[in-house]
Amino acid sequence: MKTRCPACGATSSLDALLGHSEASQAFKSCLSLVGELQNPLVKYLALFRPDNRDLTFDRASKLVNELAQDIVAKQIKRNRQTFPAPLGAWVWAIGVILERRDQGKIDLPLKTHGYLYEVISSYKPEYS
């Protein structure tokens, strides 16, 4: 079965993706995250893709795994402080980043999750 990535438009066989160990891990990690975060997370990962290359499965898996523990813990650490990060904060922050990307306000590709964590640190529940 062929699949198409909504973020980058690449097509691949689902069997091939699941057969590739890093792709399989990234796919399983994404699916294990809470529902409404799945689509924004895929769009967020696309922000790490260099202009002239695809985002590798190894890199995608690493990026998702770096976030997974904080998503589950529902909190982040930024500048030696702990901030609440409920699911709504992640969805809101990724939305803010995507909006800023569309406005040309951020430099791509992203290298780390620092910008995401900076945005989450300013989250207020009324944003949801």
Major pleated sheet:
2 strands, antiparallel
Order of helices and strands: EEHHHHEEHH
The rounded distance between the terminal residues' Cα atoms is 36 Å
Number of helices: 6
State the strand order across the main sheet: 1-2
**Mean of residue pLDDT values:** 83
**What's the Cα radius of gyration?**
15 Å
Structural class: mainly alpha
- Quick one: overall form? globular
Helix fraction? 40-55%
Give the strand tally.
4
Low-confidence stretches: none
* Content of β-strand: 5-15%
Give a description of the structure.
By secondary structure, this protein is mainly alpha-helical. Helix content is 52%, strand content 11%. It contains six helices and four strands. The strands form two sheets. A two-stranded antiparallel ribbon has the order 1-2. A hairpin with a 6-residue loop joins β1 and β2 (11-13). α2 packs parallel to α4, α3 packs parallel to α5 (87-102) and α5 crosses α6 (114-120). The protein is globular, with a radius of gyration of 15 Å. The model has no long low-confidence stretch (mean pLDDT 83).
Topology readout:
Elements: E1 2-4, E2 11-13, H1 14-19, H2 21-32, H3 38-46, H4 57-73, E3 75-78, E4 81-84, H5 87-102, H6 114-120
Antiparallel strand pairs: 1-2, 3-4
Helix pairs in contact: 2-4, 3-5, 5-6
